[in-house]
Amino acid sequence: MFFHASIQYYGVISILALCGLLLPTQQSKADPLLNTDDASITDAYRCQLETSYLYLKDGAWSYQATPACNLNQNLEVSIGYHATKELDQIRGFSAQVKTVVKPMENDWGIATSLTLSRDNQAEQRTDLDWFLNVPVSFNFLDQRLALHSNLGYQYAQDHARLLRWSIATNYALTDRLALSVETYNQDRQAPLFQTAVHYSLIPNVLTLEASLGDRLHDLRQRWFGFGLSFTPASP
């Protein structure tokens, strides 16, 4: 039943986004606050750093830092650290490999990624989780408007078989300012929704982000987020 419900949510949100009913991040850029990945990777032999901080209304918070590097023409590797403070302190690490299946030619592209993660909670280590994801991206309006769609399969200790999906629309108001809206699932409860604003202090190098999110329907889980994306310029 959950599998069919996820597909229904995914299909409905896809149709709404394609019809432009969702508010329009930057095209093919790193977005540390968004859960939806795009179909691009860091340029060959370059690295970037994504960091984010989320504060929930009940006083809980989470933080993550993820450096990523493209080791050759089409293999991006990232290793991240994350921490969450709720009732217990949770810390963990993740590693991801990502490759482009179809480059962003003719305004659309496909990528695939595999993420492995493990957490420590109350000094007790959890099992290794993994997540296989397929991002698909489309560009419109001379690449000012973008649609990113993810569909993946996650194996985790607390929800062993979970079909995950996400949809994000991205619109660049200016060369420096952009807006985003996304919806996604991360468990068997109601989907989550967030909006974000992105401002490039240094175009294509340093971007600051802020977001506001909540859980849809009757479950309330509001949060505020702040993020930074840094891509050092080529020497």
Structure description:
This protein has 235 residues and is mainly beta. It has one domain (2-230): monomeric porin ompg (Porin). It is 7% helix and 57% strand. Strands 1-2-3-4-5-7-8-9-10-11-12-13 form a twelve-stranded antiparallel beta barrel. A hairpin with a 3-residue loop joins strand 3 (76-85) and strand 4. The termini are far apart.
**What is the number of independent domains?**
1
Strand/helix succession: HEEEEEEEEEEEEE
The helix content, as a percent range, equals under 10%
Cα(first) to Cα(last) distance is 53 Å
Task: State Rg.
Answer: 17 Å
Q: How does the overall form come out from the CA principal axes?
A: globular
- The total of helices stands at 1
Q: What CATH architecture label applies?
A: Beta Barrel
The count of strands amounts to 13
User: Could you give the order of strands across the largest sheet?
Assistant: 1-2-3-4-5-7-8-9-10-11-12-13
Structural class: mainly beta
Main CATH class:
Mainly Beta
Q: Mean pLDDT, nearest integer?
A: 84
CATH superfamily: monomeric porin ompg
Low-confidence stretches are 1-29
CATH topology: Porin
